[in-house]
């Protein structure tokens, strides 16, 4: 391998578009758009001998794109060309004027967070990085993970291979677990007399996974059987009640018949004056009570029949829900298995690319890499200035990095090699 992975800075172009004429002549203002400014307002109370903080005004304020902040009671306050001391004095004077205070309140201004630095292009993690005063280009690139190492760098290829191998192992393990689950679901459906459209082979499935699924199957069967047993017990109890009520009604019907016959005979005697009317009234009362008890038995029998029907329906619902839920779960699991198998194929192809194809291509692309770097500053007027890599950055600066392969040199190296080959 000739000079694989060699990074050579071929060109360095640093242009600060619409920046100031020089770093030394940059504006004296402290604030930038997207900064966060902390303001604390306090007032001295001579009568109490203490300071009171104005909580309604104190807090953090975000600087807008047009360099303003919105402060309660004061509205929009421009920060353009201001430093912290000037802003503090201006807010204090405006508050004294607006509130008609005898003394101006004390206002403290701090910049709690600067706008970030933006890094684009060939770095490990492009995007924004927190700004720290005095930060250099090198430090900003380091916070972004350093320069991107293109194909041909063994460390990246090895990392990709390790990551992909782990992904492949995870996909295979997931596929085996799904296959074991499908086997268990098919057994459950088969036990219900439902034929599955296809059967998953257990070949290649680890025994411990099959054992886990078998334990799940037994637990699910126990839970299902327990629910069915509960409904069966309620049904059997209701049937026993129906039988008991039937026996009670038979005895009660006999008593009602005897009471009616006795009442008929007593009424005849009363009509002849051979018996008192009170005896007839007592028998009527007894007959009414017996008939009321007979109605209660009929109502109890009806409720018991309803309980039997509900129990039968509950047993049917348990079986139906089990079949439906198991079938749906089987269908979903098969879809997950198809996805896992696709993941295995993709991970296998990526692993082959990381271990065979990419290293081979890296050798073919054996040439130097040119690093082209440009820095852009948020416009504040003036002429662009040229800085080196160790020059301090300002918040909101944008760094753009490009890696270009010197293919012409690579081609010439190959040509020389081919010419030298006998």
TrEMBL record:
Annotated Soluble ligand binding domain residues: 117-151
InterPro entries noted in UniProt: HH_AprE-like (IPR058781), Poly_export (IPR049712), Poly_export_N (IPR003715), Soluble_ligand-bd (IPR019554)
Recorded coiled-coil stretches: none
GO terms assigned for molecular function: polysaccharide transmembrane transporter activity
The keyword Signal is annotated on this UniProt entry: yes
UniProt keyword annotation of Signal present: yes
Domain AprE-like long alpha-helical hairpin per the UniProt entry, residue ranges: 207-349
Signal peptide feature range: 1-25
Keywords from the named record: Signal
The Polysaccharide export protein N-terminal domain, residue ranges: 33-111
Pfam families the record matches: HH_AprE (PF25994), Poly_export (PF02563), SLBB (PF10531)
Protein name in UniProt: Uncharacterized protein
Lineage: Bacteria, Pseudomonadati, Pseudomonadota, Alphaproteobacteria, Hyphomicrobiales
């Amino acid at each position: 391998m000739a000079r694989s992975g060699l990074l050579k800075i071929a060109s360095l172009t640093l242009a600060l578009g619409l920046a100031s004429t020089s770093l030394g002549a940059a504006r004296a203002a402290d604030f930038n758009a997207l900064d966060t400014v902390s303001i604390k307002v306090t007032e001295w109370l001579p009568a109490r001998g203490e300071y009171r903080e104005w909580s309604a005004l104190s807090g953090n304020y975000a600087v807008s794109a047009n360099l303003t902040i919105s402060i309660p009671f004061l509205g929009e306050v421009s920060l353009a060309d201001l430093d912290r001391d000037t802003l503090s004095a201006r807010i204090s004077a405006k508050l004294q004027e607006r509130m008609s205070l005898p003394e101006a309140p004390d206002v403290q201004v701090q910049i709690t967070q600067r706008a970030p630095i933006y890094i684009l292009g060939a770095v490990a993690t492009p995007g924004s990085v927190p700004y720290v005063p005095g930060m250099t280009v090198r430090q900003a690139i380091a916070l972004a993970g350093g320069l991107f190492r293109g194909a041909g760098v063994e460390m990246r290829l090895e990392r990709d291979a390790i990551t992909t191998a782990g992904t492949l192992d995870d996909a295979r393990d997931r596929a085996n677990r799904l296959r074991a689950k499908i086997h268990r679901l098919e057994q459950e459906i088969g036990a219900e007399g439902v034929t599955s459209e296809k059967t998953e082979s257990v070949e290649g499935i680890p025994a411990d996974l099959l054992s886990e699924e078998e334990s799940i199957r037994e637990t699910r069967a126990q839970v299902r059987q327990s629910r069915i047993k509960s409904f069966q017990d309620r049904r059997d109890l209701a049937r026993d009640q129906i039988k008991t009520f039937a026996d009670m009604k038979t005895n009660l019907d006999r008593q009602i018949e005897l009471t009616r016959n006795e009442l008929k005979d007593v009424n005849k005697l009363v009509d002849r004056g051979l018996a008192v009317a009170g005896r007839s009234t007592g028998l009527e009362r007894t007959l009414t009570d017996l008939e009321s008890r007979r109605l209660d038995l009929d109502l109890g029998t009806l409720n018991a029949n309803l309980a039997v029907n509900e129990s039968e329906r509950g047993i049917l619902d348990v079986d139906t829900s089990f079949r439906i839920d198991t079938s749906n779960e089987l269908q979903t699991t098969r879809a997950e298995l198809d996805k896992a198998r696709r993941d295995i194929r993709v991970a296998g192809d990526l692993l082959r690319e990381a271990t065979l194809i990419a290293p081979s291509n890296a050798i073919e692309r054996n040439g130097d890499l040119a690093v082209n770097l440009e820095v852009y500053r948020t416009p504040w007027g003036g002429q662009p200035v040229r800085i080196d890599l160790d020059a301090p950055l300002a918040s909101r600066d944008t760094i753009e990095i490009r890696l270009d392969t010197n293919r012409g040199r690579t081609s010439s190296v190959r040509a020389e090699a081919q010419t030298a080959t006998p």
